[in-house]
Every structure is written in C-alpha cells, then in structure tokens.
C-alpha cells in the first residue's frame, strides 16, 4: 500500500549521533517535528535548531519549502538560521582577526540561503559589512570573503542597490582601479558594479565616472580569463544602461582604442575555448554596435536638407565627373536639370527627376545613402566600374545601382538584426565583425559588387530584380552561416557561391525534402515510419541519460549559476542538482534531487511554463520563451523548470520527456530526423531500382491458371 501523499520517509543526521529514520507528516507544524527530533536525541531548546538538506546547497527547511522534500531525502539537524545569524553577526565584529575571517568565510557560504540571508539582514548585518569595506584597508582573504558575502546577500533582492553609500561604492571602485590587489577581489568588485549599474541612473553615472573605459580595457587585456570576463560584463552593463548619445560616444572611444581588433586577436582567437558567457557578451557588443545604424535606418531623406542633397549629388559627380565638368557652364538650367536626371537614371534611381523620393522609404532610409556614399568614396574604382558598366548595357539588362543598394541595405539590416533588442541568451556573433571597424559599410561594399556579379550570371532584366535580390540574400545568409573569421574570407566564399552553385544547392535540398511521390514509395514510407520513430525515441532517451547542463536565468540579470539534469539508465528517475562552473558531466550520484518518472504528470512549454509567467510583468524575451519548458510532477503538481541552452537541446529534451510520459514527440527536430532517416532508408531500399520508373499503380494480378498440374511430383522416387 503506498504511503499517504502528506507523508515522506526521510533520514535525519547529526554529528556524533545515530541517524534517525522518520516519516515526516507534512501537515504537522515544523516546530513540532523539530521538537520530536530533538527529544529523540535528548536535546533541549528545540527552537534553537533547524533542518537543512545534507547534500547540494544545504538549504534550510521552512514552512514555505517543506513540500519540496521527497521520499529518501537526507536532512541534517543544525543550528537555526536566527542563531547562526546572531553568532556570525557577533563574529564579524570580533577583534580577533582569525575569528573574524572564519566568520566572514562562513557568512559567504550561508548567505546563499534565503532564510539565513533574511535573518542576517534583519539584524542590520549589511551595515557591518559596509563598515568592514569602508573602514578597512585589508585587501586579502578577509576582504574577499566580505565581498563574496555581500554579493550573495544582495542576490536575494531584500535591499535596494540604491541604498548603498557613495563611500562604499567608491571603495569598491578603488579595488577595480588598483593595480596591486588580488584578482579574486577585482573580479568580485567588477561583479558588484555590474549588478549595480542597471538599477538606477544615478549609480550608472557614478560607476561610469569612476571606472574609466581605459581601466576596463586594461582588465580586458589581463591573462586571467575570469577577470577578463567580469570586465567585459561591466562594460556591457554600462553600454546597455547608457543613453543613445552616451552609447555612441563610448563605442567611438572604444573604436579609437582598437577594442575590436584586440577582441578578435586575443579573445576570439585565443588558445582557450570561448565560454558561453563571453560568447553572449560578444553577441551583445556586436548587437549594440550595429544598432547605432538604427537611427539612420529609420530616418527618411529630407529633400530640403542641403547636407543630404550634397551627399546625393556627390554620387552623381563621382560617377560622371569627366562627362559633366567641362561643358556644364555653357548649359542652360533646363539642360543641366535634364542632364542630371539622365545621370541619376544611369545610377539606377527609379525617380530620376527627384532621386530623393527613392530614399523616402524607411527602413532603410538614410542608411542606404550612407552606404552608397561610403562605397563611392572608399572604393571609387569599383563604384565607377559598376555604374559605367551598366550604363553601357542595353536598357533592359542594366543592373540599377541605387535601387539595388537600397534593397541590399534592407536585406543586411534584416540579416544582422539591426534595430532589434538584444536577446538575454543568444551567443551568435560573427567573428569577422571584430576584425573591422566599419563592418556594416565594408560588408555592403562586398555585397553590392556581388549583386552586379549575380545579375550578370543570371542574365537578369529589370523584371527579375526581386529574384536576383532573393538569390543574393541566400548567398549572404549561407556564407555567414559558415562563420568566416574575416571579411576577406567572407568575400572569397560568397563570390565562390555563384548562381549555378545556388541552383545546385537548391536542387540537392529539394531532392532531400521531396522523395518520389509514387504510391508504392509512399506506402513504403508509412511502413518504415514506426520502426524509425522507435529509433528516434531511443536516441532521445539516450540523450536524457547523458544529461545536459542548464543555466539559471533571473529577470534581473544573466546568471552564471548552473545545474545539471539527467535520466537514470533504467529510465525511471530524473536526477538533478546544482553544479560548479567547469563541471561538464557530473556523476549521477552527485545529483541530490530526484523525480520519479512515475510521478510526472505533464510537460509545459513556452508561455504555459510558470517561470515565464512570473516574468510576464516585464518585457518578455522571445528567445527565452522558445527555450522554456517545465515538468509537472507529483500529486501537488510541483514544477521543475528548464531553460534549454539551445533550440536543439530544447527539442531533444521535450521529445524525451514526452516519450517518458507516453505521448507523441512534437518538436520540429523529430520531423527533421524522421525525414533524414526515411530518406536514407528509402534510398537504400530503392538502390536496385535506380533509373527504373516506378508505376503509380501496381501491375494487374494475372488470372489463376486453368489447372495446377504444373507442380513437380515428389512422390515418385527415381528408379
């Protein structure tokens, strides 16, 4: 007979005592449970004790989290949080350096627990930490423990960052600006400032003033990877909290200091592999830099702006300088206007009498004009060749430079996500972005020449314009997906991917996607499906058994806390627990938490998940929603919440969990894998039928013979 749902069987340990095996009644007050446990060990003053998990993070058991206790959990009887907080509050004020250091070390460890943190903060414990930092001159182990404890206590959001004194903040800043200070202290100080910056405008301005960009660049050049990471985190926090003008000024200064080239050489191409956190920060830096183009992209051309009109005229003058310079003085106004209109038509403007009208569409707005001017000034030979070459073609075959430039700018903005907010989780950056200061403009210069090349390869006319631009978009997208490390490599690869190659790739993909539609082949597909789906199910469960590292992401900031989850080899229990950075595949025995598969009720994804609903008051992040899923388990319907590191992991985990729940696999990856396996299996089965046409209908079955006497008679043995 199964135990009642309000009763869990647990073990309770205490140092120097024989463990107790008890049945914990969840309806019984925790104080009464503690009294019974203490009485069994003859311990007076039960109110001075508390229970906490013996493994993992050793969280204190409270009335609010006691329902998380599972059958088989091992708890430990320990000093209650209020007693521990009282002792440590006194310990960190001790005159004895050793006692004070040990107390701060223990405080840094216990502060991860929300119950203890609440008790310590309620005793005005943070004030003592402020005093140690503000009044002390120590820069060794004691200070490191103090800063660690402060970071953990502030993590619980009981106290606002705006309550910090200017003296405390400047002291933290001084550790960042010092040269002769331990790297661990600088890392903690940078982390504190990173958390502080987004909380208020006042704190942002204070940190921006006190920690110069030059100082952050010095830390970025450090050989210590963690110090480098924390410096990058603070730099990104400052950029995200700045106004548009401040952000532009900061990025201009960083460009003067060649930060992109440094990142390209010493971080992206360093001997150490790039971590997820650094990859995310590089993605944000790329996104923020590209978003500087957003204002020009969304601004239409003003036909009354002399500056913009001069830029437009410079395009015409650069292309047709020799033709229009000499006789211009002899032309009447009407003749000059007619000549200008003709030249603008040769440049590829749709509205040649008033070319500004072509640039009224936003996006791409003035960004298209900027790109054309950059191309004409920085690669004048290529610009003149493009324009003059097309001027001499037949009208119907000329490639319109201006129209192509406007559409190409729009395509590049779409591919590079210009104007879109930064994702909280994305890590997809382009290494070549950091090898070039004027990345967007230089990329445009390569791609506009690609447009002309593809136009000629396709023998296109004006009616084919959209088709050509679609091919160019595909060429750029396919080449960028290869992550070329430099613009030169991008140029080589994108030019090698000519129109005939695109047609071959499309044909190959079409053959992969569209199998022969003959009825017998379709019937064979259906017969093969169950066997191959079972193969996919086994692969999904095997992946769950191998386990995956997940990140904890809060609404306040991107966390670097990790946890690991894996399925037991017998497919009966999900094991999970927190792990340290750098641990890739912890053994199943080290994961303290368990969920029996039999207790799992359902799988939730996206907006249905409780951890995405909790954040609904803020700005929902599309990427997080696409990667979120939750397992509902137990009678009380608890939830284990996940945010997958990638879409691939999301598909494999949701499929695997659906298999465990006895449901269909619903991810897009299932269909992709099934199509690949079916394609391979069909090709193998039909190998002998190559070049033989398969009829849509089976051949007719012949009539039965008039007699069946054609069988060999074995009854007569040979004589």
TrEMBL record:
GO molecular function: SH3 domain binding
Domain of life: Eukaryota
PROSITE patterns documented for this protein: ELMO (PS51335)
A biological-process GO annotation: apoptotic process
Gene3D superfamilies registered for this protein in UniProt: 6.10.250.810, Leucine-rich Repeat Variant, Pleckstrin-homology domain (PH domain)/Phosphotyrosine-binding domain (PTB)
Known function: Involved in cytoskeletal rearrangements required for phagocytosis of apoptotic cells and cell motility. Acts in association with DOCK1 and CRK. Was initially proposed to be required in complex with DOCK1 to activate Rac Rho small GTPases. May enhance the guanine nucleotide exchange factor (GEF) activity of DOCK1.
Name of the protein in its database record: ELMO3 protein
Organism: Ptilonorhynchus violaceus (Satin bowerbird)
Originating gene: Elmo3
